[in-house]
Amino acid sequence: MAIDRRKQILEAATNSFSLFGYKATTMDQVAKIANVGKGTIYTFFKNKEELFDEIVSSLINEMTLEAEEVIDPEATFSENVHRALFRLLEFRKEHKLTIKLYQEAREMGTPAVSEVIDRMEKVVIEFLSHRIEKAILSGAIKPCNPEMTAFVLLKLYVSLIFDWERAHGPLDKDEIAHLFELYIIKGLSN
Amino acid sequence: MAIDRRKQILEAATNSFSLFGYKATTMDQVAKIANVGKGTIYTFFKNKEELFDEIVSSLINEMTLEAEEVIDPEATFSENVHRALFRLLEFRKEHKLTIKLYQEAREMGTPAVSEVIDRMEKVVIEFLSHRIEKAILSGAIKPCNPEMTAFVLLKLYVSLIFDWERAHGPLDKDEIAHLFELYIIKGLSN
DNA sequence: AGAATGACTAAATTACAAATATAGTCAAAC
DNA sequence: GTTTGACTATATTTGTAATTTAGTCATTCT
């Protein structure tokens, strides 16, 4: 239990960031939770921001890997959107951090947090853009600006998860998948 | 030029709110621009917030009227969405106020401003909901939750006008109309 | 030795108070 | 009867002391 202090620190920091946000998490707190002296944190991480960045980077990596993994080149575009969405929606614990960060960015505008969100969104948009480009080339979907389409998909997702849920209670995975299918893939028109 | 002080005041306040926002507009300033004594404002409006509310209310009324007017019961749903959107996008001056208010709500979270935005969005969503309900009943579009669909349409609009434009420069009317057609009405799938 | 530590310091944040600015009033002027 | 701007009470900003927190480093522990 006294080994792998690095991991202990990362875990403690992740929990604290998820629960209280970036600004409200103190290094003393992280040290206390991780059961290490504060100095120990600085033997592994240059400063608070780097600790934060490492946590977010590995979250981004995990998500990208998962998404990459779940894509089936044989399946249709719509099916792949489904699969990726579903997997994404299962990231509940990591999601807690994301949700907290969106909240902190909105309510307090902490710069380090806004930067990190930009970074996350950039990765998501790039990932989606590539998929969309391929789907256009293969004729699976209509020609469109891939970056803007990625942007619209992300905005729809964020709107549903953060804004709609905040006012109307949570949506389950199937519901969200159905909504993407209806609004973006198939379209409303008969 | 010394008559209809009420109108002068409304105009001065509208300009100042559009240019500087709600908080940064002072009653002395409004009086100065409107060429009236400050006391005069209070013979027509109980306080700053009521002056603001009246301006926003008439903006909402104008918009609803315009939208109502532009709807053609004979035309298709998609065409009506187009027409309404186009008309909306012509509201450039009033739009300035809306844009400033969104900015102020985001950056400073002024309560009076956030309330007003909620009010505006509620009206828009109610208006859209009714149209969508009718379109579902007439079979013009697929069955869906009208309120949520209205919400998604609004969010797409706001995302494009405020978020995308902020990062990538303005979109022209035809482009926006085309995007609505592509993403929401027809869908991406081939 | 080398890793871990927590008292320590410098810098940032918050709490508080005085100074300023603003909303709203009202007695005088028109 | 309407308009007005000097006036007041309230809200905001500014400057400053008190507190908190990030980051260091001499000492302790293994």
Question: Would you kindly provide a written description of the structure presented here, covering whatever features stand out?
Answer:
- Two copies of one chain form a homodimer.
- With 190 residues, chain A is an all-alpha fold.
- In chain A, 78% of the residues lie in helices and 0% in strands.
- Chain A has helices at residues 5-20, 27-34, 38-44, 48-70, 77-90, 92-107, 111-137, 146-168, 173-186.
- In chain A, helix 6 (92-107) packs across helix 7 (111-137).
- The first copy, chain A, is elongated.
- The first copy, chain A, starts with a helix and ends with a helix.
- Chain B binds a DNA duplex (30 and 30 nucleotides) through helix 2 and helix 3.
Secondary structure layout plus pairing:
The structure is a homodimer of 190-residue chains.
Chain A: H1 5-20, H2 27-34, H3 38-44, H4 48-70, H5 77-90, H6 92-107, H7 111-137, H8 146-168, H9 173-186
Helix pairs in contact in A: 1-2, 1-6, 4-5, 4-7, 5-9, 6-7, 7-8
The structure holds a DNA duplex (30 and 30 nucleotides).
Give the largest interface. Answer: A-B, 30 and 30 residues
Q: Let me know the number of strands of chain A.
A: 0
Please mark out the parts of chain A with pLDDT under 50 across 5 or more consecutive residues, or reply none.
none
Backbone structural class of chain A: mainly alpha
Number of helices of chain A: 9
Give the overall shape of chain A, derived from the CA principal axes: elongated
Q: What is the arithmetic mean of pLDDT of chain A?
A: 91
Q: What is the oligomeric state here?
A: homodimer
